[in-house]
Design brief:
about 110 residues; mainly alpha
């Protein structure tokens, strides 16, 4: 697997996570304090999330992940703060694949 597959995923995971937090703050401001508008923020996050899904799916197919793991990685882009925890774990597991070795397994 090429290193740019992992790099694209990592960049989009962080960008999507930050925009999800911005969107969450905008929703709280709009409905909690009756201020602001969320239309532009939601559209930007939506486009970024679609790119994230494409890159995560690309990484998952090249790393030969089971379907459940792929769903968990995709769901991490929908849960505030989840990408900040899932991305480092995925990176640790995928780095050996970039180097051409067997994938690292997570220790329980």
């Amino acid at each position: 697997m090429k290193s740019n597959v992992l790099s694209r995923y990592r960049v989009m995971a962080y960008i999507t996570a930050v925009w999800l937090l911005v969107f969450t703050a905008a929703i709280i401001a709009k409905y909690g304090f009756q201020t602001g508008d969320t239309m532009l923020i939601s559209q930007i996050h939506g486009v970024l999330f679609i790119v994230y899904v494409v890159f995560a799916f690309d990484l998952g197919t090249k790393a030969k992940w089971p379907f459940g793991k792929l769903l968990w990685v995709l769901a991490a882009g929908c849960i505030p703060f989840a990408s900040f925890f899932v991305e480092p774990k995925i990176t640790r597991e995928a780095r050996p694949l970039v180097a051409g070795a067997a994938p690292a397994t997570a220790k329980a």
